[in-house]
Write a structure and sequence with these properties.
Length: 332
């Protein structure tokens, strides 16, 4: 009974998140720029991965009801709902097929996510083609918008909400959020206080060193959280026509913001994974060395390690025993 209640609450939370994400994504834009990131795609993929593929019906119903409330025809609302559902099912199935656990502590897992993000929008593009009998003229912007939705939401959702996450990871939540808040504050200063232009756009890349520092300090949780909050802050201002992007030609604004966001979201993911792999390798080496030393100390014999040419490179003796000649005199 308890498990059923928790499942109902989880599915209800997914439905609310889908509706809120759709409203937010449509609300964060102005006439020239349009929506930059389609957050509902990321929410749907993360929800289906966490709750299971059977939860895709929540995506179907949520998208259909909201599109209907927006005044879409029944046919358009149905095609949009089917496209969004197929996106979530495709991405969720691929994430499970390739063994993505949501830790993003290995480069392979990050590369798999980037590949899945690239193919996730295909079902929606196909439904758009069915509705119009031709591809939308802005299909490339639509594709990038959905890819960014996956990269914005999925890593953060999986690393913090995935089943079986450790309590140690939750202990990093407050400092990670504080670092993210500081990043959002710096983005706000640039977006509001710096004269629009290319130099100001380049200043926004300061999110990268902060995210990389956060990766060194707090691991993948830090890099992902910082990058996500920074990207959301940039999206919020740019979508409302505020900030350095307004100095660019209108035809370039949309793609420039999206390329910057892809960079700010993917580079910390890769860097965090590389740091996690290095730390894991170092830990394994220390554990292996400790085991070797323990085994040597348990043996009653003196042991020497030599190169092929006879050069001494190590001398080991059980605890309480000394080598006939001090090791410092033997080595080399």
């Amino acid at each position: 009974m308890h498990r059923t209640g928790a499942s109902i609450l989880a599915h209800a939370a997914l439905a609310v998140a889908m509706v809120a994400a759709s409203t937010l994504s449509l609300g964060v834009h102005h006439d020239q720029l349009g929506a930059v990131v389609w957050i509902p795609t990321g929410v749907a993929v993360a929800g289906v991965w966490i709750l299971g593929l059977r939860s895709a019906w929540v995506v179907l119903v949520s998208v259909f009801l909201q599109r209907t409330l927006w005044g879409y025809s029944a046919t358009s609302a149905t095609l949009a709902a089917v496209g969004s559902t197929l996106e979530a099912l495709l991405a969720g199935a691929l994430l499970r097929r390739f063994g993505v656990r949501g830790e993003f502590a290995a480069l392979r897992e990050v590369l798999v996510l980037l590949g899945i993000a690239a193919v996730t929008p295909l079902p929606s593009l196909a439904m758009s083609y069915v509705a119009r009998s031709t591809f939308d003229p802005g299909w490339d912007g639509w594709w990038r918008m959905n890819v960014l939705g996956v990269l914005t939401v999925v890593p953060a959702a999986l690393v913090w909400l995935r089943p079986g996450r450790s309590g140690h990871a939750l202990g990093r939540l407050v400092p990670c959020l504080c670092t993210g808040a500081a990043t959002a504050g710096l983005v706000t200063l640039v977006m509001l206080g710096v004269t629009p232009g290319t130099p100001a756009v380049l200043l926004l890349t300061m999110v990268l060193p902060i995210a990389l520092w956060s990766a060194l300090r707090y691991g993948t949780h830090g890099s992902i959280t910082t990058a996500t909050i920074g990207a959301v802050a940039i999206t919020s201002f740019a979508g409302h026509g505020i900030g350095p992007f307004t100095s660019l030609p209108s035809a370039e604004q949309h793609v420039t913001v999206q390329i910057l966001l892809v960079t700010l979201l993917s580079v910390p993911l890769v860097f965090g994974a590389l740091i996690a792999e290095r730390e894991a390798t170092t830990t394994q080496w220390h554990e292996s060395e400790a085991m070797r030393r323990a085994m040597v100390n348990a043996l009653p014999d003196l042991m020497y390690k030599l190169r092929a040419d006879g050069t001494f490179i190590d001398a080991m003796a059980p605890t309480g025993t000394e080598t006939p000649v001090p090791a410092t005199q033997l080595l080399g």
